[in-house]
Amino acid sequence: METWTQLQELQPVATRMLQNSIVKNRMAHAYLFHGPKGTGKQNASLLFAMRSFCEEVDPESSEPCGECRSCKRIKSGNHPDVHWLEPEGQSIKKEQIEFLQKEFTYTGLESNQKVYILSEADKMTTNAANRLLKFLEEPSQQTVAILMTENVGSVLNTILSRCQRIQFHALNQNDLTQQFIEQGIPESTSQIYAALNFDLNEAITYEEDSWFAEARKIVIQLIDKVMNPKEEGYLFLHQVWLQHFQERHQHELGIDLLILWYQDIISYHLERQDRIVLIDQNDRLKQFQYTMTLHEAKACVYELLQTKRRLAYNVHNTLAMEHLVLQLQR
Question: What Pfam families does the database record attribute to this sequence (predicted)?
Fold first, then answer.
């Protein structure tokens, strides 16, 4: 989504609030964009930054031109006065915020404006959050901070109270699927991307990357292993899965794909075939329906969710996956 008009189709309320603040020149010094993954928070942050530095801006419009030097540099992540901050490892650390604080004291390289965008703001350590408060309590009129989070309940109240909150609502899965199909992505894959709450940029990136296609094959192979008591799921985990899924976020994505499998089996048991996501795997799903009870499928989803929690709490990837495979194969 490269314009506010496009974003407005998916997030009308959030987009209207931001557009009004831009056109009326009443921007807050700090925003908190919160809502589920893939709902447009990053797109809104990018558009806000582009509009702030656009060299061909229409003062009566909220739209950036998208073509000037500043807009192109922001889109490519190379503008010196727009800073993106993401977790290093599991969290945003105090040292990262201290670096930003130093940047706050400098005059902008090309103007007096600065925009700071913090992804996954709920993952700030307590020390990092307390450091950030200094900036939020003593804002510069030409500096804007945008915090993004999927878990607003984990953000400190002292930070919440100093930000203008903009809520991004969960998108309709059918609308997302149609959006991906219109970009030339096959329906079967579009269904999966929508179920995983990918935004359009993520869907296109994964569609062009062979890693995701291979990940889907490995997930299917692991399902076949754990569903057959004669197969060695544990051995497959070490020989294949752990070679492909290496980073924590990759394991989480693999688990999300596994969850889709068991949720589809549950849908078959409940005779809700209209909810099936893995439409290209119907034959397998029908087969598994007769070898796995509804209760067993629900228990597997529970184990998968527990594994995601363990990974979030820094349990070693291999240990977490070994435990999971043993539970799924029982």
Answer: DNA_pol3_delta2
